[in-house]
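Consider the following assembly input.
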Amino acid sequence: MSGVKAVVLSGGVGGAKLALGMTAVMDPEALCIVVNTGDDLDFMGLHVCPDVDTTLYTLGGLSNRELGWGRTDETWSFKRVMGDLGGPTWFSLGDADVALHVWRTQKLRAGESLSTVTAQAARRFGIGAAIIPMSDEPVATRVLTDEGEIAFQDYFVRLRCAPAVRGLRFDGVEQARPAAAVLEALSNAALEAILIAPSPPDLSVDPILAVPGMVEALRAPGVPIVAVTPVLAGAAVKGPTTKIMGELGVEASAVAVARHYGGLIDGFVLDVRDASRASEFDLPVHVCDTLMSTDANKARVAAEALAFARSLPRRPAVRPRP
Amino acid sequence: MSGVKAVVLSGGVGGAKLALGMTAVMDPEALCIVVNTGDDLDFMGLHVCPDVDTTLYTLGGLSNRELGWGRTDETWSFKRVMGDLGGPTWFSLGDADVALHVWRTQKLRAGESLSTVTAQAARRFGIGAAIIPMSDEPVATRVLTDEGEIAFQDYFVRLRCAPAVRGLRFDGVEQARPAAAVLEALSNAALEAILIAPSPPDLSVDPILAVPGMVEALRAPGVPIVAVTPVLAGAAVKGPTTKIMGELGVEASAVAVARHYGGLIDGFVLDVRDASRASEFDLPVHVCDTLMSTDANKARVAAEALAFARSLPRRPAVRPRP
């Protein structure tokens, strides 16, 4: 990472789409993707990192475009036999996917850090960009619902986001620090822009921002921070973003997302479907079609977001205290 | 196991063939197979029990008859991706097979015993016979070779039995006890026969016999103990049995196998190809075709071995000390 020019904060699918677009419009080696690990889970003793893996598979050209998650060239013998044995199958692990989890779990047990192991996997998958978990310490997103507090994947996969969300808690976050590679990327002199991907703010981006020292590290270089809207005409492309905003008493709108990131971001990429509300923002807004349904779309959104960020004035860099 | 009538001591493939034959000629619920666990290995953090699993798959009708090991309906995505990641692939794990290992490893970590977990798997695979690991404590067969002491699967799979064997050591065996279910089966009043399957004596049966208390427990009921020859006309059907016998300075013959088990067994099932040497045995011998190439063969060998054992006089039961 001798010349990191752009850092993207990302959750899973939506974030990985923007990241993939970025690799088409800039040198991937100068791109650093900081990924949420609040979704990580222990499944049958395997350390599974859904958002990190979605990013790995997407940038490695291995993502399953039919399913919208998981790997291409996937088989399902593992899940079938796990069912035969009476084991849990609510979280679908494909056979090829399991190899990554077994490999990672073994390395973590041997004392390697999640960021080191993730970097090794990225290299093995032929990925030029740096994919970095937000922290090497475990952080577990817990969803507070009317039915009690539940683990993230219980909420997201097993219960299909059905319970009404009353709040979120990031278990262990007080003890977490940004991964060293994240701080290294953010302190790179070549850095030009920080993008917040169109991932669910509450579920996927907030865990990253909640890591102590993360917000300070994002602000320190003084480069523009730009969020790409996850809400198009009052709806998310996929996932529970707007359902949760409603449940948390927030208007399901791009304006509310910008307000959510208020104080952190310097600009907002607004979808063309919401152009009529551009005047409601109290920060610079760039309007474009943000739907990333094709690779060409992804590259165009990435290029527009990046150019927009570069067009914004730098803030004074915050020098770390001596 | 309210009415165990026969106990079989077994290694992997050859033993599982005899066990399968047994289920065709007797009530499977009255059959108990005590399986070697000296071959067990930790592979990428997964607890793999090759001999137990061969027995489970064979009796569950799940064995891969083309490969001669592993499962039927198997896929290989796990191994492919493990290779992509630079992980070890010398020990071939199929995707369906991996599910059993992940499931078992998780249960063992949660504190369940190997015999409990194995019994659960057998039930899930629809197996009537009891499949019991020789011990719930770990025992690791170590192979002493000219190139030093190596782990069993390193010798057996990775090095394809190439190094000359100078001896064997069963690491941890001093701390092991026969699994409770083994002792329970052997003390069953209905017990009529104990068979030693045609598995490699040094590699697969000796670890079972080396468990402290095992030989005493086998002798205690006073029922005939019969070994089925693993050597036919100076050669094993499969595997390194006779190669190892030669390396250990023992004649590669059925006579030498009977001598190996001398003092423990009451009869020996000799292959018809070795009938001319029947007079060299100093114990009752039953001669038949022991090749178990078809299911019909397996059933016939099982029936003959069982009838032979039943025809032998019982010894006085050894009462446990009060």
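The interface with chain A takes residues 44-46, 73-75, 77-82, 84-87, 94-100, 102-103, 105-106, 109, 120-121, 124-125 of chain B (CB under 8 Å). Ask yourself how this observation constrains the way the partners meet.
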